[in-house]
Amino acid sequence: MKENPLLHRHDEYKVKTRDVRVVRLLIVLVALATLYTLYFAQSLIIPVVFSMLVALLLSPLVTRLKRLFIPRAVSSMVLLAMLVTPLTFLAFELSEPAERWMKSLPLLAEQIAEELSMISSVAHGDTTLQESQASNTAYPWFEKEPTQKTDDSAVEEQFKQGSRQMIFEMLLAAPLFLAQVIGAIVLTLFLLIFGPPLSKVVINDFPIIKNRERAKLLIRSIQQALSHYILTISIINCALGVLTAIGLSYFNIRDAILWGAIVGLLNFVPYMGSIISVGILLLVGTLQFGITSTALLPVGIFLTLNIIESQIVTPTVLGKSMQINPLVIIVWLFVSGWIWGMLGVLLAVPIFVCIKLTLQQMEVFPHWLKFIEAHD
């Protein structure tokens, strides 16, 4: 009996369709497993990613010093010390104002509750406006002791509990964060010293590498592009923080160095970092100068510098390497924040740009590159 060709083709189509569905299902399962692995292993992955970024930043300098007959171990330790020492000094300098602000959070919560209560009283016709204006002095919670209140409102109690809970959570996270920092420093040192020999062995001896000269050129170009981006964006953000601190100091804004450091750090987060910085500086201005137009002074200083940086300096220096669709960046920030928290948000854009530059250098997935760079 002769086999029906149409029936045979139909069976082949059913098999291919089933195989495609199985492959798609496996892709979804692998993606979900990857996300959950990244989430549950964040205490391990974050130091590794941070170490790799720092190693990419310092590796070209170590290579150049190697050509001058300086051992990789010596140059790596010296360069890492030159990077860590000023950051450690800055952290010690900022620890005192940061600690003072953390201790003042309960008092700050009480004062905010008082302001809300007074605004509510004024709205109902009570004559407490003068008392509200008298309380708008510069940093009153730094100079006075908390007063015992006879009738705490629900809003005030919620403010106090929230601030205390935040302090408690930060204290619990401090040992883990310190361990991650030390682990990242050690791993960075070992990546700088022993990373290049391992990559040479992979290129020269592993059979999976077919075109070895092409692989060497590709790794070198990727490393140079990533190093240039990380170095450039770090210098720009540091300059923004320093100039913001200088501007705030000129107008006698208290703890200007602390706010400059926070602004420079948050600038690694596009869009959302600037919004958070504006909110922080608006709060600082309001607490120091009261509810007046002068309270907008810190925000004005930051926005002026931020507009110059984001609209002129960064596009001019980085060019198309930072051409990324804003919607893609925002979605990536949300995903990174969900997986790794605040540290993930800070590392999100450097990681994303590294992936984009790698795809550009490897000349793969051109449709995805167009999707990432989509602009009007």
Give structural notes.
- With 376 residues, this protein is mostly helical.
- It has helices at 5-40, 42-67, 72-123, 129-134, 140-143, 154-205, 212-250, 256-266, 272-289, 297-318, 326-362, 366-372.
- Helix 2 (42-67) packs across helix 7 (212-250) and helix 2 (42-67) packs across helix 11.
- The radius of gyration is 27 Å and the shape is globular.
- The termini are far apart.
Give the termini separation: 63 Å
Poorly predicted spans: 127-152
| Share of residues in helices | over 70%
Secondary structure class reads: mainly alpha
Strand content bin = under 5%
Gross morphology is globular
The gyration radius over C-alpha positions equals 27 Å
State the total count of DSSP E strands.
0
Number of helices: 12
User: How confident is the prediction overall: mean pLDDT?
Assistant: 79
Q: Characterize the quaternary organization of these chains.
A: single chain
Largest sheet: none
Series of secondary-structure elements, N-terminal to C-terminal: HHHHHHHHHHHH
List the main descriptive attributes of the protein structure presented here.
single chain; mainly alpha; 12 helices
Brief sketch in words of this structure:
With 376 residues, this protein is mainly alpha-helical. Helices cover 82% and strands 0% of the residues.
